[in-house]
Design goal:
Mean pLDDT: 76
Number of strands: 0
Number of domains: 1
Distance between the termini: 128 Å
Helix content: over 70%
Radius of gyration: 35 Å
């Protein structure tokens, strides 16, 4: 009898627990949970943005290394240029600075100058003076334009990434919000468990767009600034070199001219 009473008490205590409804599992609202719970449209947008981000970071690493070498070798070449006494010696040493745009501008000018010196043997001095400076200047301008194009390569992609990826992320957000409203209409419920996953996935798409855009914009502006400095350095060197050529071979000076240009030209005249 006692055993029967104990069994009845146990069943009475267990019955309410068995009849109690199981609480629904709350949705995972973390970053990764929202990303995994997003629809396939939002996940496709995220995948596209990840591709933009990976390519952008690869370009950033490559251009940073490239511009750093260009800066370093340009400084070393300029030190070598003003320390040397012969143009042909500078030309040979310039082969060590292939990453320097300033060095490539000098090589183009020296090659054109060597051609003019060969022509000088069979032509009058007046004929040489007429086109010498223009030919050397054109050669150096073409070389500077080529080097500038090389320096600016791939940088435009960073600008494109910074301008477009926020809008691509916003597109994913709009798609996610529309999907969330459709789910509300189908489930006839606007509870947190219905709305939160869709809205969370939609906002993650915007976050992906910003993650891709912000580093690209910063790197784009940084690289453009450094490229402008190198471009100005090429222009200044070309002007200095042309003034030296005028002093050496044509007998006149184009102002303004720096003191070290005159000293360099006088030294080369004595050496040559």
């Amino acid at each position: 009898m006692e055993q029967l009473n104990v069994l009845q008490v146990f069943l009475a205590q267990a019955a309410p627990e068995a009849a109690a409804p199981v609480a629904p599992t709350p949705p995972d609202l973390s970053f990764w949970g929202s990303m995994l719970n997003a629809g396939w449209q939002e996940q496709l947008v995220m995948l596209i943005l990840v591709g933009f981000s990976v390519v952008s970071w690869a370009i950033i690493a490559y251009k940073h290394r490239m511009l750093s070498r260009a800066y370093q070798e340009s400084e070393e070449f300029l030190d070598t240029f003003w320390a040397s006494k012969r143009l042909d010696d500078i030309y040979q040493k310039s082969e060590e600075f292939k990453a320097s745009p300033v060095s490539q501008v000098y090589r183009a000018g020296f090659v054109e100058l060597a051609k003019l010196k060969q022509k000088e043997k069979g032509a009058s001095a007046d004929d040489i003076q007429m086109g010498a400076i223009e030919s050397v200047e054109r050669s150096m301008r073409r070389a500077a334009s080529k080097e500038l194009t090389n320096l600016e390569s791939l940088v435009a992609f960073l600008g494109t990434t910074g301008a477009t990826t926020p809008f691509i992320g916003l597109l994913g957000t709009v798609i996610g919000i529309m999907s969330a409203f459709q789910k509300i209409g189908l489930d006839k419920s606007a509870g947190l468990e219905t709305v939160a996953p869709g809205i969370g996935g939609a906002l993650v798409a915007t976050a992906f767009g910003l993650f891709a855009a912000i580093p690209a914009v910063i790197a784009y502006n940084y690289f453009l600034t450094r490229i402008k400095v190198l471009d100005a350095e090429m222009d200044h060197f070309a002007a200095d070199f042309l003034n030296i050529i005028k002093t050496l071979f044509l007998g006149f000076i184009s102002y303004p001219i720096r003191v070290h240009q005159i000293i360099f030209a006088i030294v080369i005249q004595f050496v040559l």
